[in-house]
Amino acid sequence: MITKFLSSSNTLEVISSNTLEVWISRVVYFNKKQNCCLNAFLLLNIMPEKIHNQTSKCVEDSCEFNFNEQFRFHDIDVTQLDRYTLQIKLIKHNKIKKFKNKVIGEAQIPITDLSCSSEESNIYFDLFWHFKSKTSLGSINITLCHQAATSKLNVIINQAKSLPKFSNCYVTVSLFREERIEMKSTSIKYNFRDPIFNESLEFDISTDISNPLSVYTMVVTVNNSIVLGKDRVIGHVIFSLLSPQKSAVTHWQLVQDSPHQSHPEWRTLLDPNEI
Fold first, then answer.
1. Angle CA(42)–CA(114)–CA(41) in degrees, nearest 5?
2. What predicted TM-score, i.e. pTM, was given to this entire model?
3. What pLDDT does residue 142 have?
4. Quick count: other Cβ atoms within 10 Å of Cβ 258?
5. d(CA 208, CA 199)
6. Cα separations (Å) of 47 from 50, 81, 83, 86?
7. Those residues with Cβ within 8 angstroms of residue 33's Cβ, 6 or more apart along the chain or in another chain
């Protein structure tokens, strides 16, 4: 995943018919604005009932939190695993009582995506940083179609609207695979707030039952092309089952569940400073 996200690793194991064991080894905090250190701890829940609320130790004055802690969730109904989600929050701890603790990263991981055998399984995932934008960054209309029979993913960038200002804008689509990123771009539309692209970008993507579309992450980014200087990111749409944009999660799941069909949707842009 993108390195500006909060990244974590853990080991998970089902140790009996109704007990789930999670080992949180390390969380790395990436802040592109400054090299800051925090006091932080983890809060874990099994959703949707928020059962087995568990808290880690607090690691102080660091940006790499080596927790190395084990958590056990008992009385898990293994016949209802598709209902459960493991929620993990990274929380900034304020020693001064008048200031509240603050959630700086969160992930909700379907239990069915994790190992449900008696063997240990190492996984890595991203904690997304959430807070609300003060201004609208606009939205983008995207059509997705998964041609499973031919191992293709078609991404049609239709148009964007209500961008913050007139821009020389273009769209990049980044497909994140296991160890590499494939990126494709549209042409530049000069001096528009509501640019129309109608451009199709195609990716080769092989999927099957053990490797469904949902294991991939795709990020659609609207950029402002700067003639003299570095291009500026206006906003993102993150297609992933762990995306902070719930509507994008639904869209991504629909594309997987209904292959060979076109799924056009408007998606609101996410501020690049908020992930």
1. 5
2. 0.58
3. 97
4. 12
5. 27
6. 5, 11, 8, 6
7. none
